[in-house]
Design a protein that fits this description.
Helix content: over 70%
Oligomer: single chain
Number of strands: 0
Radius of gyration: 65 Å
Distance between the termini: 193 Å
Number of helices: 2
Strand content: under 5%
Length: 162
């Protein structure tokens, strides 16, 4: 109710309030204009900087595109070389395995031949030993036999004596 009474009552305002309010509004408006002018000058300066950056980036783009193209070509050639080295290394490994297998097979054949040669040597050795024994026995028999013939001959009539 107090508010209703205040609303109906006419309060007299001093004259200076309107003037101060008008001056305050002008100052606020001028500060908004100053901010707008500052923003416009900042935008103009940044626009010049953006143009400069755009120009630099365009030049950089012109330099980087061929550089990246060359880099891609170099990596492709490097990849090709690595693939070639890989193929050569695999071929060397295959050849090495094949040579190792053949060397192993050759060594096995040589070992078999040495075993056959050893068996042959054993047979020849036994045969030579038997032949030597037979020869020695025959020589002994001949010596012994000639001695017996001489003795028998002594007893035979008509034999000459020595």
């Amino acid at each position: 109710m107090l508010l209703a009474n205040l609303a109906q009552a006419q309060v007299a305002m001093p004259t200076w309030v309107g003037t101060v309010t008008a001056i305050s509004l002008v100052i606020i408006a001028l500060s908004f204009v100053a901010v707008a002018v500052g923003l416009l000058s900042a935008l103009k300066a940044s626009s010049k900087q953006l143009d400069l950056i755009s120009h630099v980036l365009t030049g950089l783009d012109d330099d980087l595109i061929p550089a990246f193209r060359n880099l891609r070509e170099i990596t492709d050639k490097g990849k090709g070389m690595v693939d070639g080295f890989k193929n050569e290394a695999e071929a060397i490994v295959r050849t090495s395995r094949r040579m190792r297998r053949r060397a192993r097979e050759g060594a096995d054949r040589i070992e078999e031949r040495f075993q056959d040669l050893d068996a042959l040597y054993e047979v020849v050795h036994e045969e030579l030993a038997e032949a030597a024994l037979d020869v020695a026995t025959m020589v002994r028999t001949v010596r012994t036999g000639s001695g017996i013939f001489n003795r028998i001959r002594r007893f035979l009539p008509g034999a000459r004596r020595r």
